[in-house]
Amino acid sequence: MLICESLSLDDYLMELDEVNYSHPLVQQKAKELFHLSKSDIEKAKIAFEFVRDQISHSWDIQSSRVTCKASDVLYYKEGICYAKANLLAALLRSQGIPTGFCYQRLMLFDTPDKGYCIHALNAVYLASINRWIRLDARGNKPGVKAEFSIHKEKLAFAVHEEFDEKDYPIIFTKPNLQTIAVLKEHTNALEMYKHHLPSQL
Known about the structure:
The protein has one domain (3-195): C8orf32 fold. It is 30% helix and 17% strand. The chain is built from 6 helices and 8 strands. The chain has helices at 24-33, 40-54, 70-76, 81-93, 177-185, 189-195; strands at 3-4, 56-57, 78-79, 99-107, 116-126, 131-135, 166-167, 170-171. It has a 4-stranded antiparallel beta sheet with strand order 6-5-4-7, with helices on one face. Helix 1 (24-33) packs across helix 4 (81-93) and helix 3 (70-76) crosses helix 4.
């Protein structure tokens, strides 16, 4: 059961420093991706698949570059999940589609002794079906297969509560401050990913 941080959909349309959808790069990409005839479901699917498939996850490509703002993620075509969530929110908010931020607490690698991290994804309100859906544009790879679905969630990661993982139910209007701070404080994405990601909200 998802819980909205705010009851006002307008709060999920705000332009923020990190969700800078007025930036020319974001505006240009939105024009390329969307047409006026597209429904909100079609736009959400197009934006999700673009960010999932065309923006590389920094860890997957072993890149040290740190991106944060939506426009920078778009320019460099890479970022970790926090940054990719900023871009997906910017693209959809630019179209008047309410988009929020959701989080999971996951094992950083494959066992609890290697630590935990907060993982970011998005929730999108689709007026045509009067419902929020969650989308994880982290990027697919062997063992990770997130898909667009309005019927059943197909997220990147299953949450294993027996290993102290957690699925936070709140749809936030803004990115978590810890996630933005870590992006701003570090210059090497690989070191940041291994040692400095927040482990709980």
